[in-house]
Amino acid sequence: MIQRTVTGIIFSAIMLGGVFGGKNAFFALFALVTAGCLLELTGLLFRNDRYDRLRQAAGTAWGTSVYLLLGGSSLGLLGGSFSFYGIVLAVLTAPVFLALELFLRPEKPFENAGYHTTGLLYISLPFSLLTCLSMPAGEFFGTGDYDPWRIFGLLLLIWSNDSWAYIIGSRFGRNKLYERISPGKTWEGFIGGGVLAVLTAWGLSFAIDSYTPAQWIVLAVTAVIFGTIGDLVESMLKRSLQIKDSGSLLPGHGGLLDRFDAFVFAIPFYWLALILLSHFQDFTARV
Predict the structure, then answer these.
(1) What pLDDT, on a 0 to 100 scale, did the predictor assign at position 109?
(2) In terms of domains, do 276 and 244 share one?
(3) Looking at residues 203-219, what average pLDDT do you find?
(4) What does 43-75 look like in DSSP terms, one character per residue?
(5) Residue 1 lies in a domain
(6) With CB atoms 3.0 to 4.6 Å apart as the test, which of 43, 77, 158, 222 could cross-link to 72 if both were Cys?
């Protein structure tokens, strides 16, 4: 318990330092998070493979490069043209890794190439989108000022939902949410965590004006639904591999992917929710 608490404090301090240390620190922090999550994911997917280390290194380097190019462009740290190269890297992922399989001659070449594409879609692109969310209205290519409170709020909604779902579920939970994948999750925890996450968003709307009250509430609902799904997806991965944690980087907490499973899955839906809400508000204003 002490080890878990100490790790949690250090982890939180690093996260807050990176988020509030300016856009360079934020960019560097999530470059490391992206690389770490990819390293864990590819290590799990390619474990016991003859060329596991090679595949792990290649997949991690490739996916991190996509984040660096897209994220750097979004934050204005690189020229806008670098975003084009990031998209090219993302599109060429499957063909390049299929070509690699020609030389490695595995039994399941398309499955291996698919694993690398999974890392790109599951880890690299969502964290690249996070850099867009740090800008006003999710703008691209550094056209606005980096706003750490946006990122803090998005993280807090996930953490709030996770924490309260666990607390309420462990105390009052009776009905299993998805027992086949995650026996510990309950409907009581899901509903309780969701209500508290929405209340957290309502409170944030008074303290942080980075989003409107309507945006905060929509983001909270998004965090509850898709954060929970993200948690279940990672549980499905671990259950399929018969492992408890994605890694051991964070003593008492598991790996990086264990800590970011809900957040990374929710990021694209955060972005989509804000875009759709913006269009809806524009439409209603015209009507």
Answers:
(1) 82
(2) yes
(3) 93
(4) HHHTTT-TTHHHHHHHHHHHHHHHHHHHHHHHT
(5) no
(6) 77
Verify that 133 and 96 share a domain, yes or no.
yes
Token couple for 82: 């670098």
Q: How many domains would you assign to the chain?
A: 2
User: Is 3 within a domain?
Assistant: no
Determine the structural domain holding residue 116 and report its residue range. 23-145
Whether 137 and 176 map to the same domain: the answer is no
pLDDT tens figures, 42-94: 999 988 778 888 889 989 998 999 999 888 888 888 765 666 777 777 777 77
3-state secondary structure of 260: helix
Note whether 74 and 137 are within 8 A (CB). Answer: no
125 and 216 co-located in one domain: no
Answer yes or no: do 186 and 80 share one domain: no
Residues 128 and 227 both lie in one domain: no
Q: Residue 143 pLDDT more than 60?
A: no
Same domain, 177 and 83: no
* Model confidence pLDDT, tens digit, residues 182-193: 888 999 999 999
Q: How many helices and strands, by DSSP H and E, does the chain display?
A: 11, 2
Residue type, 281: Q
Q: How many other C-beta atoms lie within 10 A of the C-beta of residue 257? A: 26
Quote the pTM value.
0.91
Mark residue 47 as left, alpha or beta (left: phi above 0; alpha: psi -120 to 50; beta: remaining): beta
Question: Can you tell me the distance from the alpha carbon of 194 to that of 228, in angstroms, rounded to the nearest whole number?
Answer: 10
